Amino acid sequence: MIKQINHDEGFLKRKAVKATRQDAEVVADLMDTLRANQERCVGMAANMIGVNKRIIAVQMGILSVPMINPEITKKSDPYTAKEGCLSLVGQRSAKRYGTIEVTFLDQKFQKHTQTFSDFIAQTIQHEIDHCNGIII
C-alpha cells in the first residue's frame, strides 16, 4: 500500500529498531511507496512512511531493492555530497563514501554482503542514516 511521506523531523531523528519477519507488510508498503515516488526519489527508509524499523528500499536501475537491517561494514573514498530528501525541504551537505560494503537481509530474510559504489552507495548511506536517526 502506498503510504504518505512523513515530514516530522522529531520522528525521523529517532533511531530505528531492528525489523523482524513480522514486518513483511512494512517492506511491501515501503516498496510500493518508493515505486509511487520514483520520479522524484531513488531511496526510502521505513521511518519516511511513519514506521520506526531498520528497513530501506533503493532504486537500482529498473529494480527496487529492499534491505532489512542494513549495516555498513566497510567504507572508503570519503567525499562531501549535496543531497535532497523527500521528507525535508531543500538540499544539504552530507559526508559520504565512494565505496561501501553492506550486510543486510532480503525479503526472505536471507543474509547478503555486497559492495556498492558511486550513486547507489550514496543513496544507501542516506537511507541507513535515516535508520540511525540522522537526517541531512
Automatic annotation (TrEMBL):
Which InterPro entries does the record match to this protein?
Peptide_deformylase (IPR023635), Peptide_deformylase_sf (IPR036821)
Q: Which GO terms describe its molecular function?
A: peptide deformylase activity
Q: What is its EC number?
A: 3.5.1.88
Q: One Pfam family of this protein, by short name?
A: Pep_deformylase
Q: What enzyme category does the UniProt record give?
A: hydrolase
The question of whether Transcription is a record keyword is answered with: no
User: Keyword annotations for this protein?
Assistant: Hydrolase
Keyword Nucleotide-binding annotated: no
- Family designation: Belongs to the polypeptide deformylase family.
Q: What is this protein called?
A: Peptide deformylase
This chain's source organism reads Secundilactobacillus collinoides
| Species classification | Bacteria, Bacillati, Bacillota, Bacilli, Lactobacillales
